[in-house]
Design brief:
single chain, alpha+beta, 6-stranded antiparallel β-sheet, 17% helix, elongated
Length: 143
């Protein structure tokens, strides 16, 4: 009976060890610092016919621009951009939504990024851009 217990413990330890040895490398989220974030009007060819996500109301088109700092020595892929955007009256432009878009690839160091957003035409400008950050993966996740 004691031999059977030792065999079970040995096999359990062996399976655990092998699962660690054979497991693929994890793709942990890498934080990307976003700074010098501002916005500009979309060029006319992008702004024409802009509507909000519900598809029924007119919208203004803007391009959010800024710098992204990848402090690692690896390229980061599929970095989701998070932030809050408020209008001139401090009303949220994107209700209940902090994920605004993504950056396909962020090389090591500092690089430029841009993101197109649509804002309901009835919300007054200037816009206030706050708490912008991004997080992505050290390997390609979506193919």
């Amino acid at each position: 009976m004691q031999l059977r217990s030792l065999t079970v413990v040995f096999i359990s330890c062996l399976i655990t060890f092998l699962s660690w040895a054979i497991a693929p490398p994890s793709l942990a989220l890498t934080q990307i610092k976003l700074f010098d974030v501002s916005y500009k009007d979309c060029p006319p060819e992008l702004a024409q016919g802009a509507v909000i996500s519900s598809g029924s109301a007119a919208a203004n088109c803007f391009i959010v621009i800024g710098k992204a700092e990848n402090g690692t020595n690896k390229t980061v892929y599929d970095a989701d951009i998070f932030g809050r955007i408020y209008d001139a009256n401090n009303d949220s432009v994107m209700q209940n939504r902090t994920r605004l878009g993504s950056i396909v690839e962020v090389p090591p160091g500092i690089s430029d990024f841009e993101l197109r957003i649509s804002v309901p035409a009835n919300q007054p400008t200037p816009l206030k851009l706050k708490q912008f950050k991004a997080a992505g993966f050290s390997g390609q996740v979506r193919k």
